[in-house]
């Protein structure tokens, strides 16, 4: 395992990047959510994403700076083909997005989760569910209760938000802050295990899984 990841100084290093991938159907607002978080604005116009777009932001969690790189992926199949495997391989956190005004984007979440699992993204990689476009109140098709049930069944937190409404920008931040926070906790947990020198903890159990941050084995 890479020793530097256990070093708390490295964990605090703002240049040490955590990659978060944003996936979901085309047009659900992945680009707008990413721009709202990284740039604080809502773009007047967006083009369909081709492959993957990268944006970065350094966030502070309990006094520690963590650099978050957000990978905004194409929702359209024809624009995804070549990129999927490479990006899934290096991911530290996943944001699944659906459009609260479009039931089909919610139904399709199953396919996105399957794709994620098929590409061997460990279940220990933190995942969150985001219902976007909550500002379109009169058009909502996906009730919160249904989304909550789905989120619970898949062990994810649910965020309902709007990339468009500036009053919701804190909620958009919360999505990524939540993931960054969980990643930070994960690093601390792994470091504690490493310090305790517990070989038993790090091997020999069918319940062990790979750590999302450092690739080391860790308890589920
Ligand atoms: N009302 C409303 N519209 C939104 C919101 N977020 C995005 N949109 C609109 O939805 C459309 C699609 O937004 P994008 O962010 O480009 O969607 P995407 O998921 O990145 O689409 P792909 O790149 O094709 O995968 C645009 O017209 C946005 O203006 C929101 O919170 N509220």
TrEMBL record:
Biological process GO annotation list? Rab protein signal transduction
- What GO terms fall under cellular component here? Golgi apparatus
Question: Where does the record place it?
Answer: Endomembrane system
Please give, as recorded in its UniProt entry, the membrane topology of this protein. Lipid-anchor
The primary location reported for this protein is membrane
What chemistry does it catalyse, as a reaction equation? Answer: GTP + H2O = GDP + phosphate + H(+)
Q: Which SMART domains match?
A: RAB, RAN, RAS, RHO
Keyword annotations: GTP-binding, Hydrolase, Lipoprotein, Membrane, Methylation, Nucleotide-binding, Prenylation
Top-tier EC class: hydrolase
Is Phosphoprotein there in the keyword field?
no
> Per its UniProt record, what Pfam families does this chain match?
Ras
**EC numbers, comma separated:** 3.6.5.2
Q: Which GO terms describe its molecular function?
A: G protein activity; GTP binding
The coenzyme or cofactor needed here is: Mg(2+)
Q: Which InterPro entries match?
A: P-loop_NTPase, Rab33A/B, Small_GTP-bd, Small_GTPase
Question: What PANTHER family does its record include?
Answer: PTHR47978
> Could you say which protein family the record assigns here?
Belongs to the small GTPase superfamily. Rab family.
Q: How is this protein named in the record?
A: small monomeric GTPase
Identify the species of origin. Melopsittacus undulatus
